[in-house]
């Protein structure tokens, strides 16, 4: 009897993930170089909207180590609701949605500021056969994620770094004791964010994990009063 392909063995999923990875390898360095060069002459750092436009053609996928970790977390945690800030082309969404499918249920709600990227992510999810487990909301994350269908079991923060803390604070009322927060790109995280999740009394137990470029891995210790 042949086993049904699951998650990271499903060729529909791996094909799309490989395509996103190749796009990032070939395009992202040039796109980011042009983006930095363009913004260098601006009197102020780019806003999230401006940065999204500058990086519209950059895939910016999670490192495969982080994606695999997400898949493992979702399979073991069996969350009803996963929330993602910064979907981009949807690589991390694919890892989480594949695990939700293999669990037999659950949903990931992603947020992406750039409409073109949101459309590409939806297309990737559909091609991978995972669109039934994912919803991509287009627009400013603090608005798009302010209303959710239930408690949040797992959060992935992988968007504009200066918005990690504002987005987390929007989500905190929906977190429960035992919810997990994965914050990607550790070297780039603002001190105010890491101070928030590492400071005793703020309701988290947090540590650094050497996956990809580094992640901050935080456990919510208590329900929000």
Please render the helix and strand layout as text.
Blueprint: H1 11-40, H2 48-54, H3 64-77, E1 81-85, H4 91-103, E2 107-112, H5 115-127, E3 134-138, H6 141-144, E4 152-157, H7 164-171, E5 175-184, H8 191-198, E6 204-209, E7 215-220
Parallel strand pairs: 1-2, 1-4, 2-3, 4-5
Antiparallel strand pairs: 5-7, 6-7
Walk me through what this model shows.
With 225 residues, this protein is an alpha/beta fold. The protein has one domain (1-225): Rossmann fold. It is 43% helix and 20% strand. It contains 8 helices and 7 strands, in the order αααβαβαβαβαβαββ. The chain has helices at 11-40, 48-54, 64-77, 91-103, 115-127, 141-144, 164-171, 191-198, and strands at residues 81-85, 107-112, 134-138, 152-157, 175-184, 204-209, 215-220. It has a 7-stranded mixed sheet, with helices on both faces. Helix 3 runs parallel beside helix 4. The longest helix has 30 residues, at 11-40.
């Amino acid at each position: 009897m042949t086993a049904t392909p699951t998650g990271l063995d499903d060729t529909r999923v791996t094909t799309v993930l490989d395509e996103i990875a190749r796009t990032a390898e070939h395009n992202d360095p040039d796109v980011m170089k042009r983006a930095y060069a363009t913004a260098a002459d601006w009197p102020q750092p780019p806003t999230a909207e401006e940065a999204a436009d500058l990086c519209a053609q950059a895939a910016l996928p999670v490192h495969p180590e982080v994606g695999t970790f997400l898949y493992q977390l979702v399979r073991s945690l069996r969350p009803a609701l996963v929330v993602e800030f910064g979907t981009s082309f949807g690589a991390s969404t694919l890892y989480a949605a594949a695990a939700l499918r293999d669990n037999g249920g659950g949903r990931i709600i992603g947020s992406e500021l750039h409409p073109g990227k949101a459309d590409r992510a939806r297309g990737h999810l559909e091609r991978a056969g995972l669109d039934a487990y994912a919803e991509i909301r287009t627009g400013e994350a603090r608005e798009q994620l302010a209303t959710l269908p239930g408690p949040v079991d797992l959060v992935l923060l992988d968007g504009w770094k200066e918005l990690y803390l504002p987005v987390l604070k929007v989500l905190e009322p929906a977190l429960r004791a035992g919810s997990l927060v994965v914050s990607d790109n550790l070297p780039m995280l603002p001190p105010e964010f890491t101070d928030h999740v590492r400071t005793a009394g703020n309701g988290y137990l947090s540590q650094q994990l050497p996956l990809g470029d580094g992640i901050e891995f935080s456990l919510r210790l208590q329900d929000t009063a």
